[in-house]
Amino acid sequence: MSERPPVDGYCEQCGFDYGTGDLQGTVTLLIRQSADCSMALTKAAAGPDPKVVRLRPEPEVWSAIEYACHVRDVLEVQRLRIAQCLAEDRPVYAPMDRTGRVKQEKYEDQDPMEVAAALMRMAREFGAAARVLQPHELGKLGLYNYPVRAPRTLGWIIRHTAHEIQHHRHDIIEILAKVEPPIIPKPKPAPEDTPEEASAGEAAADGAPESGAGGSGGSTAEVSAD
Predict the structure, then answer these.
(1) What is the Cα 39 distance to its own chain's centre?
(2) Is residue 176 within 8 Å of residue 50, measured between CB atoms?
(3) How far apart are CA 123 and CA 141, in angstroms?
(4) What are phi and psi of 56, to 5 degrees?
(5) What backbone torsions phi and psi does residue 144 show, to the nearest 5 degrees?
(6) Which of the residue ranges 36-40, 155-159, 207-211 would you say has the lowest mean pLDDT?
(7) Could you tell me if 23 and 138 are in contact, meaning their C-beta atoms sit under 8 angstroms apart?
(8) Following DSSP, what letter does each residue of 157-178 receive, concatenated?
(9) Predicted pLDDT of residue 4
């Protein structure tokens, strides 16, 4: 895992700002960034070396498939928290156990195409749940655990979820850039001589003395150099 990003204000790592954007714009951004995560994963998995999605650039940094699984699960968990907050007064959200899930759910072994499809499905379902919230509902509080135990509004949960997706989109793209094999361009074919160049070469050859002419016994290059 990389360094924990902020949960308020501006994130210098990915550019997300908790203080800008309305509800609809934030949800639209979340779905667009989810699509970017999904496409980056499927493109890498369909490339010359599908195993790159499972490679960790460093032992403690997740692979692209692990981050994509995390994004998928974040979207599902946060949608369920919206429903819990609407149904309960001051709910206490159960911890997601973000690190434990990596091994428990065997993220590294999951099918990248299935993960990408599920990620987009969860993004649409989260978006549908978030878009219909009314102003008084956005202000409802629940006890959130990450990164510290604190009361958070539904409005904050939506923004925080959008930040999670944007931040991990940045992670996925950056990691794939490190572990994907470089694309080596094919060598360009040698240019063929034009008819004019070929004629000039033949004329020069006709006028040159043969090897050994004049009793030198040297090569053509040596004769030409005299």
Answers:
(1) 8
(2) no
(3) 23
(4) -95, 130
(5) -100, 145
(6) 207-211
(7) yes
(8) HHHHHHHHHHHHHHHHHHHHHH
(9) 76
Residue 226 host element (H or E): none
pLDDT tens, 171-207?
Answer: 999 999 999 765 545 566 666 655 555 555 554 445 4
Long-range contacts from 95-104, C-beta under 8 angstroms, 24+ separation: 95/145, 95/146, 96/145, 96/146, 98/70, 98/146, 99/1, 101/69, 101/70, 101/73, 102/62, 102/66, 102/69, 102/70
172 Cβ contact list (under 8 Å, min separation 6): 37, 40, 41, 64, 67, 68
Token pair, residue 18, equals 């908790």
Q: How far apart, in whole angstroms, are the C-alpha atoms of residue 18 and residue 8?
A: 6
Answer positive or negative: Cα dihedral of 20, 21, 27, 29: negative
**What pLDDT is recorded for position 225?**
31
How many residues are listed for the chain in this entry?
Answer: 226
CB 35 within 8 A of CB 170: no
The position carrying tokens 């509902």 is 137
Centre a 10 Å sphere on the Cβ of residue 40 and count the other Cβ atoms it contains. 21
**How many CA atoms lie within 13 Å of 145's alpha carbon, on the beta-carbon side?**
11
Name beta bridge partners: 158: none
Is residue 105 scored above 90 in pLDDT?
Answer: yes
Closest CA relative to residue 56, chosen from 65, 43, 45 = 65
